[in-house]
Amino acid sequence: MIEQFRAYITSNHLINKGDRILVAVSGGVDSMVLAELLRKEGYDIAFAHCNFHLRGKESDEDEQFVREYAERVGVKLFVRQFDTLDYVENNKVSVEMAARELRYAWFNDLINANEHLNASSAAQKVAGVSNERSEWNSLRFDKLALAHHADDQIETFFINLLRGSGIKGLKAMQPRNGMYIRPLLWATRTEIKQFAGANNIQWREDSTNSDTVYLRNKIRHDLMPVFDSIKPEAREKILESVSHLASENQLYRELLKEKLSQIETVDGVLHSIPKRHFDLQLLFEWIRDFGFSYSQCDSIFSSLNSEPGKEFYSADYQLVIEKETIEIFPINLNLNNPSLSFDKFEKTSNFKLQTSNLKVAQIDYDKLKLPLKTRIWQQGDRFHPLGMRGTKLVSDFFNDNNFTAFQKKITPILVDSDGQIVWIVGHRIDDRFKITEKTKTIYQINFEK
User: Fold this and answer.
1) Using the 8-state DSSP alphabet, how is residue 232 labeled?
2) Are residues 322 and 347 in the same domain?
3) Hey, which of 3, 22, 149, 398 would disulfide with 403, CB 3.0 to 4.6 Å?
4) Predicted structure pTM score
5) Does 48 lie in the same domain as 189?
6) Tens-place pLDDT, residues 42-92
């Protein structure tokens, strides 16, 4: 098994010379075997253990077991205790999802210790060794090793299948995903237990592993024996299929990336694609990276030919169906103040008003109440468009001039100290501040973006 372990790490480029490896150690047989293999191979490692407090005394005994093991072999250990059920209640997620989110948030903190010194959730508390900021700051981990194995891979395949996943989900787990590595993904649960027995590796058995209330356990204990009875090499063939799907997914992703690069326009934080290019699948592949779900994709696709302006939201992004395009941009735009320069000069007899350059506003200085400031458009804003007697809602001005939702968000509004709109920057000044025959001093504002 050691030779296969070495070969798998080498062939999949999992660990480079000099890498520091953080190993997730639960105390179960899989993680204990992984920890021992990495340790005996001489890798620079530390351990990380999560106590989710889901099994009462048993959870604490798992933690103590890992503590004693780490002390015995002389490896640095990080422990984090979680109030998982409180997290479930506050975030309305399943216990499995809560444990996953808490676990990976903490792992990310540890891997990026120099950047993330604070706990990632108020529901978490540090317990045990190696939790001082000064010590965290001195650490750097290049990879985090997880003990997923071949049987986990099969179970993940069926979990994703039952969730309605496409090829991206059905390829299941990969040997490496960014900084996360899975050096045991080739080994079966049986092989791992045999190796542990032959090498006197102790472990803790999780009593919930036999509880079929969890989907993964249902697949493990109820579904897989049926496949084994149908075809003796069923697991091997399923793993082959997963491997094929992973290869096909890689090719599909490369072709998809090429296709999107040909039709997508990216202007800073704004992403847009003409509506004519979309079918349902391509639309989903584009918007999923912005956090939109497949159910949202159905609604978006159904709205493509409806009246423009319909909006959809993910956690961080806003999607707007415009007349010809679909546009995506961050909900919270960090807009810099526009670059404006100001010139004041006396009006002369040969003065000619600039009207063709929309990036220049020339106004009557004596009508201004300084200081001027810029802000973004707000609902209910009104101004007196140049050339009109009455007022107009800025929103109506935007709509009359075919502003997109993104343009509305980023167009600066210049106001005076009384809050009166002086200039919709780059578009129209307010008629109240226009230059007339009585103007003595001109205030010129140049918009340089």
Assistant:
1) T
2) no
3) 398
4) 0.69
5) yes
6) 999 999 999 999 988 999 999 999 999 999 999 999 999 999 999 999 998
